[in-house]
Fold:
Amino acid sequence: MDAAAAGNKEREAVQLLAEAEKRVKSSHSFLRGLFGGNTKVEEACEMYTRAANMFKIAKNWSAAGNAFCQAAKLHMQLQSKHDAATCFVDAGNAYKKADPQEAINCLNAAIDIYTDMGRFTIAAKHHITTAEIYESELVDIEKAIAHYEQAADYYKGEESNSSANKCLLKVAGYAAQLEQYQKATEIFEQVGTSTMDNPLLKHSAKDYFFKAALCHFIVDELNAKLALEKYEEMFPAFTDSRECKLLKKLLEAHEEQNCEAYTEAVKEFDSISRLDQWLTTMLLRIKKSIQGENDGDLK
Structure:
């Protein structure tokens, strides 16, 4: 859309806002309150929503978010909880592009309504959106973790275990980055155990046990050995996996304080299965515990 067309949409939106405000004010008069005050409020809701959509077309995200918020508050006044929640979500989506903190405020308002209505699955979905804003926009990992945990709780309560596990894996990944290894280990083990008996998901169990073992390894070599034995016993398919073989090589190299053997084992694994950033970070932390190892690289 060109600048002139966007400007026209903004002007239309501003006119609608003015009309909506007039409707709201007139609904407060004594006689209107007796005769059809709600009708005026309903009309104002519609006008705020139309204005918000025009602001969206003009890419004025803050104004769109604000107009959706006004509509949401009026829907609450009318006891239209579902419509209010929808408008708060629309406001959050608009604010995401301009004001991440305000987006979170709107999503939290929607979450409160959905939980009050017993709509826990949709509340969980918006907790995830909130967590993602904390991850990518506000870079507050502790708060992202809290929202992923809340989403997981709601999904579990609704028996959506696969969705709950996705959230828990996010929590575990971040917990390990923050050096909360016990928390990370418990979650990776829990998810690994819950997936290893599922024919469709069991191929992923080895990844979760691998990550749990790495978290153990960073804390204590003996812990990692004992954990590895436990995982092989629980999940025999793990023994033949490349992940398990790598762990055994790393444990041997660490026991011998052989940095070259450690690096070679990692390089060999990486040549077939590319290491992601999380695995690279954890493997480097283990490598640094080998005596005299100051190199910040795995290769």
Remarks:
- Residues 3-27 form the longest helix (25 residues).
- The chain has a mean pLDDT of 88.
- DSSP finds 15 helices and no strands in the chain.
